[in-house]
Amino acid sequence: MNQYRSNNLKTWSVEERPREKVIANGVQYLSDSELLAILLGSGTRNMTAVELARQILLKSANSLHELGKQNISDLVGFKGIGPAKAITLLAAMELGRRRSATQQTERIPVKSSETVFNLFHPILGDLDHEEFWLLMLNRANRVLGKFKVSQGGLSGTVIDTRIILKKALDNLASSIVVCHNHPSGNNQPSDADVKITEKLKKAAEMLEIKLLDHVIIADKSYFSFADEGLIA
To answer: How many domains does the chain have?
Structure first.
């Protein structure tokens, strides 16, 4: 008769327990699946938490980047994953994104579109909907602050230039950069993107604020209006 094995982490042998491995060796020595297993806490009747974690990673091509794009509906599709565990995984992914995004950006001079991409990719890279953000800079092109202007659906978001310029004025910004994402993966600007950029540039000039760039982020690539000579 096959011996029944509980899939709660506490019942595993010490060498198999991810938590004990952390205590003995440090968290950096755990595999991605073992880290996910700690978040899951338990597996199913026929699958350990580590095995379940491996299954989840396999569905995401063994990529944490792809896993970060999953939503609750995707995760609860796995046997043994309910809403509570799905939310735990999503929260961990969001913390990772926020850690990347909350570096001391105020000390970094924004001198290129690549800097803008590095600042906003942790925020926008994994989203399944569009968001439009404002980056405010002082005279030395150092960051005064970031502000989410709007959030939309898969294909677009409504932009109000008045909100953007009021926020820039409130923060005494000398120049601004706007940034949004394309969940489709296509980094090319739409006609609407071009029009809002032209409108915002003209409106900002009237307030003596310079629009330096509009950067579109699509997964791991980006499009810069400034790099392409579309903002004089």
So the answer is: 2
β-pair partners for 178: 134, 214
Mean pLDDT of the region 27-54: 88
Q: 203 exposed, middle or buried (CB, 10 Å; 0-12, 13-18, 19+)?
A: middle
In a domain, 229, yes or no: no
Residue 3 forms part of a structural domain: no
User: Do 21 and 89 lie in a common domain?
Assistant: yes
CATH number at residue 122: 3.40.140.10
pTM above 0.70, yes or no: no
Range of the structural domain that residue 201 is part of = 103-224
The string of pLDDT tens digits covering residues 165-174 is 999 999 999 9
Position 3 confidence tier, pLDDT thresholds 50, 70, 90: very low
Same domain, yes or no: 32 and 93: yes
How far apart, in Å, are the Cα atoms of 199 and each of 4, 84, 159?
67, 45, 11
Over residues 84-99, the pLDDT tens digits come to 999 999 999 888 877 7
Whether 63 and 120 share a structural domain: no
